[in-house]
Amino acid sequence: MIVDVDREDMFERFVSMSKKSRQEIEYYYFNSPTRHLFESGKLSPKHYYREFVRELEMDMDFNEFREAYCNIFSLNKNVAETIRKLKKRFRLVMLSNTDILHFAYIKNKFAIVNIFDDYVLSYKVGCRKPNPLIFLKAIKKAKAMPFNCAYFDDIPNFVYVARLMGISAFQFKGYEKLREDLKKIKVL
To answer: Of 3.50.50.60, 3.40.50.1000, 3.30.10.20, 3.30.300.30, which CATH number belongs to 76-184?
Structure first.
């Protein structure tokens, strides 16, 4: 939402450095238990890198890997501006399935990430969405009752679990729908 993700260059770079096909690399990236462990904070960046390049038979040093792995984000300027407006009136908590490499990258590259009051990051709390525990941690950080929280995510299953937790949750399908949803709950 705050950042758009384009993995095309990353996959092209990985393919050029690997003995595996693009399909195999994409499958591994999205489905490997190793990535889930990394996003849950159970592997260090170097351990993740070593597993990644070993599994995909890649000839790439850690710095090359980190650059390709992280350079996938661009700022969604409309969403960033909306967040700036919301910050004037509301406590903002970022809830994200992410890893230490990605989060450090976006925090350094996009100033908007730094205006949040608190963060619930999968790699720091040891679990990933849609685990209800991560939503409980976010509610606690929000310092509010679930029904007084609003949550936005592009993954329908994550929205569903947030609603089960009593949170007003909406699927992000673009900036215009975000504005409509915020107006619905009388926030904008």
So the answer is: 3.40.50.1000
